[in-house]
Write a structure and sequence with these properties.
Shape: globular
Structural class: alpha+beta
Strand order of the largest sheet: 3-2-1-7
Number of strands: 17
Strand content: 15-25%
Mean pLDDT: 90
Oligomer: single chain
Distance between the termini: 53 Å
Order of helices and strands: EHEEHHEEEEHHHEHEEHEEEEHEHEEHHH
CATH class of one domain: Alpha Beta
């Protein structure tokens, strides 16, 4: 039986969403399969690592007092000596209660320090297989501006935009405003590095624009301002695979606000919402065959251009009158893996989760054929005093 660590939580604005994704469908599906020893690894909002089998139940985190209960526990230690091992320290100095070797990691950390590639870098150094996009694709996709720059260089259509940093806004606001004035309104203002639509605002006039920028700067040090699309249809496309990715169904969020915000995504489905709103969507999206073909074609191109692997979701903006498709952004850890979409596409939650583990192991084995060391004599040739 393989031992799987599901890592979730973290120092992120999407902390709670991460907990939901970890349990629905990841842990639930792994438990249902009966083929894995599951170790939930929770990273607190302060960055401390904990693990307890009781955390395999979502009810653990629905208890308002769980954070206080964790304060009485010693955080985990990690060992990279032979892959990845979880270590529970004992009350006695230098002693361990327990040590568990991890065969594969299933990251479920949205946003900062997880989805941005930070966790993936740690897992690469630990030399352990892990599910989902690697460090490079994660880091690029987490930056909405960099995603547009990289994909546009490969001919992917994106809407006109302006970006700037917090420092630049403080020093050069009048110049930046002039650049923004060249964009057609309404405008959408976004923190560059956040997901789940946190901090995103729609601005129809100068007053709303100023307020929107202040909100975005509160959440991030880099801001994106982009043109709105006329006759807008928003669609999203989940994609899975390594070298030969496949698509799920094109989905259209039927938002209840002026754009698909955090509340629409996670709250308007009620108490039974599973992280990807089941109440307000059109699946499959009712768009023409030609638009569907272009969305899937561009989606696969974006996936490959960024070097995605395992799973990701590409979001699009469509002008339904001009029939123009724009790539909007890429999410390398879709909320709850968009399992509702894959299920309708013929892939059960269990098949999705176990299939992603298989993809992670395949990628890990393939990388073993890559040489990462280089033998040289440079140290012997460096000048300086010789060791006696």
């Amino acid at each position: 039986m393989k031992t799987v660590a599901v890592i979730f939580g973290g120092r992120s604005a999407e902390h709670d969403v991460s907990i939901i994704t970890a349990h629905i469908p990841i842990i639930e599906s792994l438990k249902a399969s009966g083929g894995y020893d599951i170790w939930p690894v929770y990273i607190s909002k302060e960055g401390k690592w904990y693990s307890d089998k009781a955390m395999n139940d979502l009810a653990y985190f629905k208890d308002p007092g769980y954070e206080q209960r964790l304060e009485g526990q010693k955080p985990l230690q990690l060992s990279f000596e032979n892959g990845l091992d979880l270590i529970w320290p004992s009350a006695s100095w230098g002693m361990f209660k327990k040590q568990v070797h991890i065969d594969v990691v299933f990251p479920s950390m949205h946003g900062t320090y997880g989805e941005d590639g930070s966790l993936m870098g740690l897992l690469r150094m630990a030399n352990v297989p892990f599910v989902g996009c690697d460090m490079f694709a994660s880091a690029v996709a987490m930056d909405k501006v960099l995603t547009k720059q990289v994909t546009a260089a490969e001919g992917v259509p994106v809407v006109p935009y302006v970006w700037f940093t917090r420092t630049e806004w403080e020093k050069e606001a009048p110049t930046i405003r002039k650049k923004i004035d060249r964009l057609r309104r309404p405008l959408f203002v976004k923190p560059v590095h956040l997901g789940s639509s946190i901090g995103i605002s729609k601005a129809k006039n100068d007053e709303e624009l100023e307020q929107a920028i202040e909100v975005a700067i509160h959440y991030d040090d880099k801001v994106l301002v982009e043109e709105g699309v006329n006759n807008l249809i928003e669609v999203t496309l989940p994609i899975m695979g390594n070298d030969e990715p496949v698509t799920a169904l094109i989905e259209r969020p039927l938002n209840q606000t002026e754009f698909f915000d955090f509340s629409d995504k996670y709250l308007s489905g009620g108490k039974k919402s599973s992280g990807a709103n089941t109440a307000v969507r059109e699946l499959p999206a009712k768009i023409s065959d030609e638009l569907s073909r272009r969305v899937k074609e561009i989606g696969i191109k974006v996936y490959k251009t960024l070097g995605c692997s395992g799973i990701a979701r590409v979001d699009f903006l469509i002008d339904s009158v001009a029939n123009t498709v724009y790539m909007n952004e890429v999410n390398t850890l879709p909320g709850s893996l968009y399992h509702h979409n894959w299920k309708q596409a013929g892939v059960s939650s269990m098949e999705l989760v176990t299939g992603l583990i298989k993809l992670a192991e395949d990628r890990f084995m393939a990388k073993k054929n890559t040489t990462v060391a280089f033998q040289s004599e440079i140290l012997q040739k460096v000048g300086g005093p010789k060791v006696q």
